[in-house]
Amino acid sequence: MATNKTRKSLLLIMLVVLLTGAGIWFVAQQRSVSGIRHVVLISLDTTRADYLSCYGYGRPTTPNIDALAKQGYLFNHTITPIPLTLPAHTSMLTGTIPPHHGRHENKDPYFDPSLVTLAALLKTKGYSTGAFVGSQILNGSFGLNRGFDIYGDQFADEDQSERRAGEVNRAAFEWLEKQKRKPVFLFLHYYDPHDAYEPPEPFATTFKENLYAGEIAYTDHCIGKVIAKLKSLGMYESSLIIVTGDHGEMLGEHGEAGHMYFIYQSAVKVPLIYKLPGSSGPQRIEDIAGIIDIVPTVCDLLDIEPPTGIQGKNLAPYFSNTPPQSEDRHIYCESLYPTKYEANTLLSLVSNRWKYIQTTRPELYDLQKDPGEQTNLVKTQPQRARILKDRLAQILEKTVRQKKPHEETPLDAETLKHLHSLGYLTGNSVKEDFSFDQDKEDPKDLIGFHEEFRKVSRMLGQDELVDVRALGDHLIKQRPGFYGSYSLLIGIALKQKDYENAILFGKKALELKPDSFKTHNTLGLAYFQSKQDEAAARHFKLALELMPNDQTVPPDERMQIHNQLGLSYSRQKKFDLAIVQFEESLKFDGKQPAIMNALAQALLTCRNPALKNPSRALELARQACELTQSKHPEYLGTLAVAYATVNNLSEAARISEKALVLAQAKGDKALIAKQQKQLYLIKKALAGLK
Ligand SMILES: [Zn+2]
């Protein structure tokens, strides 16, 4: 294999051949020293290592991965640096830990331009690079598409936030079949084991007592299809296949249902299997490893210079006949998630045997004797805890880099929508602060609150009616000073059209954060819906004033607030003010029929002769009708009034009749009455002319 010694001798041979003029470079590019031509990296989302049968699970969940492990190398103790999908994959694909790459949560759009991805490295070496992901959390706009020729994040249905492994395979196979000449780097991401646990049949029945295991079994089944595909394309024998995961799942341990909050082993211990060309195994390696090791290991196996400054370690020496001596390695992992609730961070170092977690009440575990992390040894082994704490501080000192907030790229509306539907955009952001504050609350004390907050967050995405007041009272009682609860509750109340409670929670939220433009906006909406237009306008105006003037606010959001402010002015008959707002709004997108219609109405109704503009109103109303294929009774009604105002009464009558028919078809009583009255007036005027 590519140990230093073999590489040196190979280089010598290459030099000799180069001098004699033979084309050895071409050969080197086709197949590496280790016989590898293709690289397949498979990432299993939310898969804790101990649920794979090759890692000791009691039932045969993963026969296909087991078969790979039998011919390859299984790293029995592999750690992810963070139990969250996007930052963990950022680590996996760059070989760096979160303090270095700067991404600590799923929605974070910032991806340091200086980070080199595995795909980018392989692409420069002539590989065809393809990624196919199972969830929009890994949407290409987050930057992990860097270096990929194709990045499969387009799902069959554009509203789909996730897709099954079978669908990922279908897209991947279609691409794979077209790759004929070049070596291939294929990255597959399967999201199925993530909650909700709903495996398809027969896995739902076979694993009915543990559907999470069933999802893993289904995913393994799909990996079996990948192996079969590689074999049928003649690629299997020359492929390096790596199976790993981004994080585990707590499944109720230590009080956490899913993942993201704690960094106990169930959340951070993931599978890692390397299957090299030919059969090398089974080899089981007990030394600690990380998913950050994938980049330098692949680089070594393919004789590529790894990026400088990464934290991952080359594991290729384990694949040689004389594996390296076990060393005293410590792997970093973190959860900054509790900072969302203003609690302390959880920062950890894990070694073969020991695990130290720095937080308000620090923790030390002997993983060999106590794999479930039940007995905290901090008090009985203070010396060891201190050494690990110091070591953690050294690692942070070496790796923490300053983010440049002005370089943050905004997310597009589509990505934001997906993140919303996946429940990732509620509450505060995490705080990237690695200085340790002993006075902050211990995250362990807030796990109950976190679980309840998550449960309530999910309600935002459901249509089920809930007693938002009771829910709120319970949540707020636990943490009265926590702003995130209020903003979440306003969202639920608004969705349920419970404007009274939305206003109540909105006012309380503003007591905690008077400068929050988002709260002013939602409070404005609640007032507007309950027909308190003056209050609505006041809050929309404040929202616009307080909104940061940078790219962190999507243009759509600005457009809507201007529009809402215009509508609240219109209802107060302050048309001159309304016109200004609608005009502002249309600057973001000039083809919004609802806003065009509202502006047309204001231009027709305005009493200020300097602003009244029937001909512009007519043009806007005409366009609004065109954009909606003349199927919108209200827009047609506005168009009819515009024609009447410019004295084209016969056209006004014709369109008004059409508007009435459409209103009747809709069965909207208020709209019918409005159109009837309008038609009557137009006809009366028309009769007066004759
Ligand atoms: Zn994940």
Describe the structure.
The structure is a single chain. The chain is of the alpha/beta class. Among the domains are: 38-321, Alkaline Phosphatase, subunit A (3-Layer(aba) Sandwich), CATH 3.40.720.10; 496-585, Serine Threonine Protein Phosphatase 5, Tetratricopeptide repeat (Alpha Horseshoe), CATH 1.25.40.10; 590-690, Serine Threonine Protein Phosphatase 5, Tetratricopeptide repeat. The protein is built from 26 helices and 13 strands. The strands form 2 sheets. Strands 1, 2, 3, 4, 5, 6, 7, 8 and 9 form a 9-stranded mixed sheet that branches. The longest helix is centred in the first third of the chain and has 22 residues, at 211-232. The structure holds zinc ion. Zinc ion binds next to loops.
User: Span from first to last CA?
Assistant: 99 Å
For the record, what is the CATH homologous superfamily label of the domain at 38-321? Answer: Alkaline Phosphatase, subunit A
Large-scale geometry:
elongated
Question: Would you tell me which CATH topology of the domain at 38-321 applies?
Answer: Alkaline Phosphatase, subunit A
Ligands: zinc ion
Key attributes of the depicted protein:
Serine Threonine Protein Phosphatase 5, Tetratricopeptide repeat, disordered N terminus, Alkaline Phosphatase, subunit A, alpha/beta, elongated, 13 strands, 690 residues, four-stranded antiparallel sheet, single chain, nine-stranded mixed sheet, 26 helices, binds zinc ion
